[in-house]
Amino acid sequence: MPVWRAGRCQRERAGVKGFEPRAGFVVQAYRFALDPNVGQEQGLRSHCGAARAAYNWAVSWVTAVWWQRRAEQSYGIADEKLTPWRPTSLPALRKAFNEVKHTDARFAAWWADNSKEAYSTGLANAAAAFDNYTKSKQGVRAGRPMGRPRRKSKRRARLSCRFTTGTIRVETDRRHVTLPRLGTIRTHENTRKLQRRIATGTARILSATVTHQRGRWLVSFQVEIIRDAPRPARQPDTVVGVDLGVKHLAVLADTTGKITYVPNPAHYDAALGRLRRLSRRVSRRRGPDRRTGRTPSRRWLKADAERNRVHHRVTNLRTDALHKLTTQIRAEYATVVVEDLNVAGMLSNRRLARKVADAGFGTIRRQIEYKGQWVGGVTVKADRWYPSSKTCSECGAVRDKLPLHVRVFACEQCPMVMDRDANAARNLAALAAAVKAGTGVAGDQDAKASKPRRADRQTRTTTRPRKRPGGRAGGATPRQRTETGDPRLTEAATPR
Ligand SMILES: [Zn+2]
């Protein structure tokens, strides 16, 4: 995964092809919660639904030819005589959609109710999805294999719509924003942080995206902005190593010898008791059942909403704490060394997953990176296999093993004894000195852990199928069940 991804994504999201911020500007987002009235909420939902409809139209329009070609092939039609592929680029999709929307019964009656930006959102997302799929298939796209774009369900799709043209404005009263077709919507919070920059000409709005998240409507402005961020408080040559963990959320060790422990707030764990109680209540009431078409009772809806509120609050608290932590690290240090943790791998370990997800390691690393770009700081990513915990930060000796429960690092070669995480953070800080520019992945030049064998599966998932309570009815063995397609077992029994 490339380190400096943020810049590219931001340009893409700005909706401007090949957009580069002017010299001295950076691209940044400002997000505000909205308080739409009933009519406006309807408009917001309509726009997001229109975006989904356009997306689905594009997916069906393109994939229809795939099936058509397959059918023709089955009749033995020569390859060059098959129905030609349909284009998947945004301009082509837009052109085709604009021809169809007047006549197609799916759109003719109502497409004019929404801003054209709503349909553009859906078509742009579809074009991106096809692009991702093609690139993934060709092997030029990093990350997991991407599947063929599929239609979005009305029940599950995230409500979202982006505006790149038209009237997009933050009103001078700092309590309203204006969006195309939707008009002037009151904001839940004060918009002064953005409005005052627009007023002084140090910021320019590129696009606005409305989303519905955690029961709230939010607007996110993509802004080109001059950041007059103060220089990091410490000397530029002071490097800090950040060791992320579950016991302490982060341990910071800088090259001056200062060690800071950031406690893990564990918001989710703190709310677990309440969530258990509320979930129990939900499960005792009459919930929805799509199979039988049963609708939820009012009491179920009420209990469900109450449970969701707790989840939302946990997320909000976590987001807030992570932003404060990463901003503070960036305000203090110009050069930060973080580990390139295999977060996805840790999340597939069922003993660790809850705590890892609650801590938000991936988010911390991402925020440290992009906030560093804002202030012109350097982020060094330590190689995934760099043995930061197993190396002695005094003499550099590498230990063979250091199980997670051993919290104190005692060196075998020298008398050094130190807290495990502090030792790791000191090693990370020292790593920056070994890297010249600091844009690449560090650590792979130096000593590796003695046994990288299976190291990518240190947090391995259960390979054997779990014993299921109550025996195996019908005497089916796990292998047989796999063949009959029990998805749970397929997953567990597949050798990885
Ligand atoms: Zn030592």
TrEMBL record:
State the residue spans of region: Disordered: 138-157, 279-298, 439-496
Q: Name one GO biological process term.
A: transposition
> Which keywords label this protein?
DNA recombination, DNA-binding, Metal-binding, Transposition, Zinc
Q: Which GO terms describe its molecular function?
A: DNA binding; metal ion binding
- Composition-biased stretches, type Basic residues, lie in 147-157, 279-288
Q: Any idea where the Cas12f1-like TNB domain is?
A: 361-428
Check the record and name the InterPro entries matching this protein.
Cas12f1-like_TNB, RNA-guided_DNA_endonuclease, Transposase, Transposase_put_HTH
Start and end of every Probable transposase IS891/IS1136/IS1341 domain? 222-349
Q: Where is the composition biased (Basic and acidic residues)?
A: 445-459, 480-489
A Pfam family of this chain: HTH_OrfB_IS605
Ranges for domain Transposase putative helix-turn-helix come to 28-60
Its family remark reads:
In the C-terminal section; belongs to the transposase 35 family.
Q: What is this protein called?
A: Transposase
Q: Whose protein is this, by species?
A: Catellatospora chokoriensis
